[in-house]
Amino acid sequence: MHRSQAAQLIAEHMLSQLTPEQAVEAIRAFFNDFIPDDLRPQLDPALVAQHDRHDVPPSIIPADPRYQPVLLHQMKRRLRGVTNAYLGAVLYGTMDRSVDVTGVMTPLLSCPVCGYRSLPILGNWDVCLVCGWKSDPVQEAVPDEAIGANGVSLNQARANFARTGLSSEDARDRVHPHGKFMYPRAEGQE
Ligand SMILES: [Zn+2]
After folding, report:
1. Are 104 and 90 a contacting pair, CB within 8 Å?
2. Domains of the chain: total
3. Residue 188 Cα, ligand 1 centroid: separation in angstroms?
4. Ligand 1: distance of its center to the CA of 106 in Å?
5. Gap from CA of 113 to ligand 1 centroid (Å)
6. Nearest residue to 6 (alpha-carbon basis) of 92, 117, 66, 124
7. Domain assignment of residue 64, yes or no
8. Residues 79, 162: one domain?
9. What is the pLDDT of residues 61-99, one digit of tens each?
10. Is residue 90 located within the same domain as residue 139?
11. Among 40, 65, 95, which residue terminates a domain?
């Protein structure tokens, strides 16, 4: 099975598991971000216009069918850059489907702490699901600076990761239990 098809199946499954609160949060995130080019044509034109006016509805009803493509897209975003092996394992674990996932994946950017390719953008406070580092542009420019999003400096976080597998003790609840299996490691790093 091609990885795009696997991601579609997994995203549909994730959507079915979402609580109404999580769905509302994902729809709010849509209103606060630009609309990706591949999503725009799938949307109700009135919804696009509302988004472009920054007109977030005061109460969001996640079951509104106009939000279904938005939610599916948000679920698929969480699968960007994950390995084929991880997609195969999720299909097996959640849907009991044993399939070989194929296709070329576009890796994300390397985390400056752990070296896994886990970050869509650097310096945008995205969290690395492998080591828990929050990508902080100041900390990444000044690697001995402890003040910032992480509470520890970049160099300290690297030392922590080498010792414990986490960027800091506080990062424990930010990592994914299978983070090291989800993302490939940058070349040249072992
Ligand atoms: Zn990391």
Report:
1. no
2. 2
3. 16
4. 18
5. 5
6. 92
7. yes
8. no
9. 999 999 999 999 999 999 999 999 999 999 999 888 899
10. no
11. 95
In which residue are the tokens 């579609």 written?
8
| Long-range pairs of 18-22 with CB within 8 A, sequence gap ≥ 24 | 18/62, 18/71, 18/75, 20/62
What is the rounded distance in angstroms from the CA atom of residue 4 to the CA atom of residue 101? 9
Q: What is the whole-number distance in angstroms between the Cα of residue 182 and the centre of ligand 1?
A: 12
Ligand 1 center to residue 68 CA distance, Å?
31
Q: Are residues 90 and 118 in the same domain?
A: no
Tell me the CA–centroid distance for residue 175 and ligand 1, in Å: 9
One-character DSSP codes across 19-84 = -HHHHHHHHHHHHTSPPPTTTGGGS-HHHHHHHHTT---SS--TT-GGGHHHHHHHHHHTTTT--H
128 C-alpha vs ligand 1 centroid, how far in Å? 5
Give the tens place of pLDDT for each residue, 24-70. Answer: 999 999 999 899 898 999 999 999 999 999 999 989 999 999 999 99
Query: Rounded CA gap, 71 and 14, in Å?
Result: 10
* CA atoms of 169 and 81, how far apart (whole Å): 26
Domain that holds residue 85: 3-95
Looking at the fold, whether 91 and 8 belong to one and the same domain comes out as: yes
